[in-house]
């Protein structure tokens, strides 16, 4: 088998990332519609699906990382894609709640096998100096493949909602097997014990993050914002599909099939978000790159919560779409501004701890906040959506409070 493993690593990285981006879009574009229409999941079950996936990824990130650190990046990636494919295949073939939960565990564990292993592999093979350019180029291939996968999912979904999911699952398993044949790994070295991630290190990072947050008002505020966002978003991100499917869809190209509409919504949302990002970069570049972009972050957070409230109360299809797009645009524009600001103003010694702490706070928020709001959604879908919006409501004010903490922040950073 080793004779097959002679493919150029950069080309392999591009092809595999594009293929996975296509397959992921093929599966996930209509998955939420499938959960409601074919599997008959109620609001609580919809949220529990997301919570199960989030919790699985959180718990298995460390043990699965041991394979990539000790044995082989390639082996870890291959195992990951076979498990992800099996999960996607299971949920597409068996439209039942328990089967879909089991599928989340399978593909969640699989994701943790691939998480970080692919970037570590290509960096080992080509070196850190070339890796940066490769990552940027790979992202371009991924975007093009994602658009193609979204369109393909819509076309196949008109035939059968589970069809794109089943084909994606089979394709992902095949991708893993092809990588086992062709993926070259010549520069792998075991990660030293002191550099490996462990549960003890995770606990130490969490405790150190709490200590940093107690000392530093800016870090404390960012952790609180991340926790609140997690508490709010898990339910809303699952339940908006349930509400949208209560509307009568207008005819589009001679059909009102939700498969076509959700594909169009995904594409339109991507285009609108890209357009908003380009416009802001063109006309407000100085504000976006400001040392303290708290004002624009607060504005975007306010637009986010406005979109959530509008969607919860929307009684008309087009108003609901406008609210969803408003929220998607706000989220898309916020992400790079927030990341750049955080990395720019946290010193290198604390950067990894702060980023990890913010990420952990969001995951904890999703696991804790999702199920209660999902249970509320069983009796009142609007109530659950409104509760999500109310939980998000303090975030704009928290960003504005950071302006008052600038003096302290200069001492921190």
TrEMBL record:
The chain crosses the membrane at residues 12-35, 47-71, 78-107, 165-183, 217-236, 259-280, 301-326, 381-400. Coiled coil: none annotated. It holds the Pfam family MFS_1. Its main location: membrane. It comes from the Bacteria. It is a multi-pass membrane protein. GO terms for cellular component: plasma membrane. InterPro entries: MFS (IPR011701), MFS_DHA3_Transporter (IPR053160), MFS_dom (IPR020846), MFS_trans_sf (IPR036259). The keyword Transmembrane helix applies. It is found in: Cell membrane. Residues 1-406 form the Major facilitator superfamily (MFS) profile domain. Keywords: Membrane, Transmembrane, Transmembrane helix. One of its GO terms (molecular function) is transmembrane transporter activity. This is MFS transporter. The lineage of its organism: Bacteria, Bacillati, Actinomycetota, Actinomycetes, Propionibacteriales.
């Amino acid at each position: 088998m080793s004779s097959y493993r002679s493919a150029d690593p950069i080309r392999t990285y591009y092809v595999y990332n594009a293929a996975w981006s296509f397959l992921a879009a093929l599966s996930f574009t209509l998955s939420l519609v499938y959960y409601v229409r074919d599997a008959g999941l109620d609001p609580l079950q919809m949220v529990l699906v997301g919570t199960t996936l989030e919790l699985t990824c959180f718990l298995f990130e460390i043990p699965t990382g041991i394979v990539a650190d000790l044995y082989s990046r390639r082996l870890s990636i291959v195992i990951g894609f076979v498990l992800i494919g099996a999960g996607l295949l299971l949920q597409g073939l068996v439209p039942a709640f328990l089967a879909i939960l089991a599928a989340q565990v399978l593909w969640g564990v699989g994701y943790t096998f691939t998480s970080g292993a692919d970037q570590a592999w290509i960096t080992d093979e080509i070196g850190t100096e070339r890796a940066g350019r490769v990552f940027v180029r790979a992202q371009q291939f991924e975007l093009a493949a994602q658009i193609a996968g979204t369109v393909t999912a819509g076309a196949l979904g008109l035939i059968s909602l589970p069809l794109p999911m089943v084909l994606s699952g089979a394709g992902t398993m095949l991708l893993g097997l092809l990588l086992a044949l062709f993926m070259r790994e010549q520069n792998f070295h075991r990660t030293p014990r002191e550099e490996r991630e462990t549960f003890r290190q995770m606990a130490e990072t969490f405790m150190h993050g709490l200590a940093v947050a107690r000392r530093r008002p800016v870090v404390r505020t960012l952790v609180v914002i991340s926790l609140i966002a997690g508490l709010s978003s898990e339910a809303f991100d699952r339940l908006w599909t349930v509400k949208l499917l209560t509307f009568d869809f207008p005819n589009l190209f001679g059909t009102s099939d939700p498969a076509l509409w959700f594909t169009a919504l995904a594409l339109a949302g991507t285009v609108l978000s890209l357009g908003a990002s380009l416009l802001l970069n063109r006309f407000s570049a100085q504000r976006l790159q400001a040392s303290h972009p708290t004002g624009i972050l607060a504005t975007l957070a306010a637009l986010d919560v406005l979109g959530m409230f509008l969607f919860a109360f929307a009684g008309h299809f087009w108003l609901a779409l406008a609210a969803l797009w408003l929220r998607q645009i706000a989220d898309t524009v916020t992400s790079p501004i927030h990341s750049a600001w955080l990395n720019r103003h946290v010193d290198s010694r604390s950067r990894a701890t702060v980023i990890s702490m913010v990420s952990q706070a969001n995951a904890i928020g999703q696991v804790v906040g999702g199920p209660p709001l999902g249970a509320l959604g069983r009796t009142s879908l609007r109530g659950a959506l409104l509760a999500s919006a109310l939980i998000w409501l303090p975030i704009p004010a928290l960003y504005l409070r950071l302006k008052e903490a600038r003096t302290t922040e200069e001492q921190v950073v």
